[in-house]
Amino acid sequence: MKVLIADDDPQLVRALRITLGAHGYEVVAAPDGASAITLAVKERPDIYIVDLGMPRLDGIGLIEAVRGWSTAPIIVVSGRTGSADKVEALDAGADDYVTKPFQVDELLARLRALARRAVAASDEPVVTFGDVIVDLSTTSVTRGGERVHLTPTEWRILEFLVRNPGSLVTRQTLLKRIWGSDQVTDTGYLRLYMSQLRKKLEADPAHPRHLLTESGMGYRLLTD
Which of 26, 201, 213 is nearest to 111 (CA)? Predict the structure, then answer.
C-alpha cells in the first residue's frame, strides 16, 4: 500500500519512511503542498499523511485539492492542537487527525484502520462490531441475532459512521448529511441520537467501545 507524506520536516519524513517501510508500506514524500499535488497525480497513493503548516500550499489547501479527485483516506499529523484546527481539517476532507508529538504505535493503528477502509470502502454490504451486524443492502441491524429497530434518523447517522469506519466524523458533517444544511446548529440532537444508538447497540452504553465521542469535534465508529 502506497503512502504519500506531505511534510516539510525532513527528520520526521525520514523517520516515517523507515518505520512505515518496515511495516510494508511504500512511501513517497513531498516537502510542500504544491509538490505533494504533483506527486499525488503521478503516484496515485492509497493513503495520505499531511502536515498543516507547509510552504507554498498548506495542508488545508492540499486536502481540498485532493478531495477534488480522490477519495483516498487522509490523516493529518500536525503540531496544531486546537480543536478549531482539527475541525477545519476534518471538514476540508481529512479522515483523521493525530497531534505531534505522537506515539508511532498510535499512528500505525490509525493507518491500519484507514487502510482497511481504503481496501473495503463501502463495497462490503455487511459490517459487524461487537455482536452487532449492520446490513447496508437491506438497511437492517441485528444484535445478538435479534432485530434492532432504529428510527430513520438513527439509521442515517449509523449508516454514515459505518461507511466511514475508524474515521473521525465532525458534528457539522453529520448535521449537514442528516439535515442537509450548513446552517443547522447542534442543539443537542446528535447527543440525543448517539445516546439512543448506544442504548440499542452497545453492551455498556455508559462506557461505549464502538460508538465513540471525540470531545469538541465529533464521533467515531470502531469496529475492532
Answer: 26
Find out whether 110 and 96 touch, Cβ atoms under 8 Å.
yes
From-to residues of CATH 3.40.50.2300 in the chain = 2-120
Instruction: Provide CATH 1.10.10.10 ranges for the chain.
Output: 126-221
- What average pLDDT is seen over the chain? 88
Homologous superfamily of 2-120 in CATH? Response regulator (3.40.50.2300)
pLDDT(6) > 60? yes
Kind of pairing, strands 218-221 and 96-99? Answer: unpaired
Q: Which residues of 155-181 are buried (b: 16+ CB within 10 A; e: fewer)?
A: bbbbbbbbbbbbbbbbbbbbbeebeee
Q: Give the whole-angstrom CA distance, residue 175 versus residue 164.
A: 15
Whether 97 shows a pLDDT value over 60: the answer reads yes
Q: What is the pTM of this model?
A: 0.62
pLDDT digits (tens, 9 = 90+) for 75-91: 999 988 888 888 899 98
Q: How confident is the model at residue 187 (pLDDT cuts 50, 70, 90)?
A: low
Domain 126-221 has CATH 1.10.10.10: yes
